[in-house]
Amino acid sequence: MLPVAMEPFDISYLRYQQWTDCISWFVLWVIVFVAALLGIVFKSSGAWWWGPTGMVGIPVIAMWTIFWYHPRAFAAGGFGLSEDVLVVRSGVWWKSIELLPLSRLQHVDCTSGPVQAKFDVATLTAHTAGASNAAVSVPGLSRFRAEMLRDQLIRRSDVHLREAEATKGEEPVAVLPTSGVRDGVEN
Amino acid sequence: MNLMEADPAWRRLHWATMPMQMIRSIRVMIVPIVVILFFRSRGGEEQGRAFGALGSAGVFALITVAIALWRYFSLRFYVGANELVIETGLIGRSVRHIKLEQVQDLRTSQGVLQRMIGVSDVKVETAGTGGGSEAELSVLSLKDVADLRAKIERFRLAKSISFIDASLQPGNGLPTGTDPQPGALPAIALGTSRPEELLRSVSTKELIVAGLTSNRVLSGLVVIGVTWGLLNDFIPEREMLAWVESMIMRLKNEMTADTSTRVIIALLGTVLLISLGVISSVVGTIVRFHGYQLRRSTNATVKGLVRESGLFTRRSSTLTVDRVQTLTFRQGVLRRLIGRMSVHAATAAGMSDRDKDSTDLLLPIARTAEAASLATIVFPERGMGSVTNLSRADRSTVRRSNKKTVVLVLLTLIALVMANRSPWSMLVLAAIPILFLANRRSWRVSGHQLDDQLDDQLDHELNYERNGPMLHLRTGLIGLSYRLMPARNSQVILLTQSPFDRSYGVARLHVDTAGEQAGNGVSVGPIPVSGAVELAMKLARQASVTTWPGRRPDSRRI
Q1: Closest to A175 in 3D by CA, of A101, A106, A90, A81
Q2: Distance CA B108, CA B123 (A)
């Protein structure tokens, strides 16, 4: 439905999310396990059922988020860059599409934490002068793609440069290899 | 000697800065001092403590004088060709350079004493200064204020002329927006009054109407709260409590008398409360907006709206028209009956001295036609546009809202039953039909339209336009709110869809505009997905082919 070709995030972003989630859930499971063990040792008079419930429930929720939710969130996400607009799509149940007119760009951040770097994942954030939704983030890009996208955003954000290029008959420079086209809020 | 010190352009604040600063500091301490003097000294054994407190007050006074002297001698400023430079500090110095092109507003306020001396507080506001001003100059002489204002306007004028000149050069592209040289500044006599055209003044009679219709009945409670707080400062707590206890006892005696007495007391209490609210609303409106004037800078290229009002403290501020993001016309239910509305502008500047909803009040009250004419001034060549029918969401959205209402009410009911296990909780179900009516009314009232019918004509005649398509939005339930936003003011456009929205094929659209406040944006919907996506793309494309005034001196259509 969107007249902009959409690209998926890098698959390494899915792996990064699954692994970080896996570690987080495991840490939580260990905490619950230790707490339940202490409850048995010290014969806590409180409710006994939360220990086993947590120890079984946490792995179930973890499996569900890692193998069901994240792949769907990954499939639902994506971004597209036309000559004048950056589009970012996200959300499994609560879907959202953000459109950033490129001439509104103030500055672009490209960040990659140590864990992200391990998975070769970077987050690109495009800032505007807006208020409540002033920044648009493109989270799941390899560092190379993120840097390429950043350069293109900066280049295309100048209306007058775009106009000059158009009057000279220059073809717009291809930005990123489009690996797929998906569209629409209802995907 | 420092080269900057040798520059004769450096100026200091007005000498009245020192007494004003002292008065401010003393005002903070006046209530505790009065309490100490008049109440603590009643008991003989507390006399010594009171004098001790007076000694502390003396030390405080000395500190106050020191602060006042420091404030006067530690700040100096000068207005250069394209920047305002403010230097603060005596030992460690900090210098702030504020580009004149970034100055959005110069707000002045004059208390009674300041009006007598002929000085004013000045706040310099730029885009994105968040919770306050970029700089405060307190206090300046009126001549210095006029000089500063004139230099800013002169700079803007020069910038606009250089832009137009460069645009008219054959074969020339758009100008690069370089700052004008001092020698190129057009001649405007400094210190002289600016050419301004009175657009609207609000009479005291209109202000009374504004106060009566501003839905501030709850202000009565605030007045009672403030009065209680003040009394608590002056009267010892045990005396206050004894008085309240006696009042409660008397009321209890009256309440046990008979039903009619209770009804009369309840009615009288309600009338008293409402009267207090109405009176405080009227008085507050008159104090704030007395002598309200909205003037327009008649300069062809520098478009500013100057507002001035206040019974005791006179406030004046200039709103640069180019920086207005949205214009909102509001009508409460009472104002609809008498054909009046208020006009608010959301700007890209910071939020000091704003309304509670972060907008700038342009007109506290005006007839509908007068208010609409303001749109043409703020958004020239477009005004209210040619929209006659706003598109309304599909009727199924009412059913969607009703379902949502039922779910929310049932959840509330469950929470209430679990909390107090009382059959009275079932009363919450009575809200359902009322909320159904509200949903239907909201659907009937709300609508939006992107007015782009003038584009071709403007392209042909002018080759460029300032405002481009205009998004019109009407929302409301009992009162009405009508909002105008030029498409070029879009910063980020956000489309959202909840699972509930998806089952009805609708989405919401939020358009973010420049500024620090979330209230600056425009929200549309729920509307059908296809319409929402189309509208979002139109807004994004239109915004993309124009430059935001925060980046360039003017917008231009490609």
Answers
A1: A81
A2: 6
pLDDT computed for residue B168 by the predictor: 45
| Number of CB atoms found within 10 A of residue B161's CB | 17
Name the residue among B163, B175, B490, B476 with its Cα closest to residue B348. Answer: B490
The pTM of the whole model exceeds 0.90? no
Report DSSP state, residue B312: S
B476 Rama sector, left if φ>0, alpha if ψ -120 to 50, beta otherwise: left
Taking the C-alpha atoms of residue A130 and residue B541, their distance in angstroms, rounded to an integer, is: 17
Integer Rg of chain A from CA? 22
Cβ atoms of A42 and A26 closer than 8 Å? no
Residues of A in contact with B498 (CB under 8 A): 93-94
Q: Which amino acid is at B44?
A: G
Percent of chain B with pLDDT over 90: 5
Flag whether residue A99 sits within 8 Å of chain B, measured between CB atoms.
Answer: yes
Burial class (CB in 10 A: 0-12, 13-18, 19+), B471: buried
Least confident of A61-65, B33-37, B320-324, B428-432: B33-37
Q: How close are the terminal C-alpha atoms of chain B, in Å?
A: 53
| pLDDT (0 to 100) of residue A108 | 87
The residue in chain A having the minimum alpha-carbon distance to the alpha carbon of residue B530 is A1
pLDDT, tens only, B427-458: 888 999 999 999 998 888 888 888 766 554 44
DSSP reduced 3-state for B105: strand
User: How far is CA A49 from each of CA A28, A30, A31, A39, B472, rounded to the nearest angstrom?
Assistant: 17, 17, 16, 11, 58
Which of B544, B545, B554, B556 to substitute to test the interface with A, most A CBs within 10 Å?
Answer: B544
> With an 8 Å Cβ cutoff, is B25 touching chain A?
no
Q: State which residues of chain A have pLDDT below 50.
A: 170-187
Question: Letter for the amino acid at B17?
Answer: T
Give φ, ψ of A108 to 5 degrees: -125, 130
Contact call for B540 and A84, based on CB within 8 A: yes
Distance CA B143, CA B471 (A): 42
Is residue B451 packed enough to be buried (19+ CB in 10 Å), middle (13-18) or exposed (0-12)?
buried
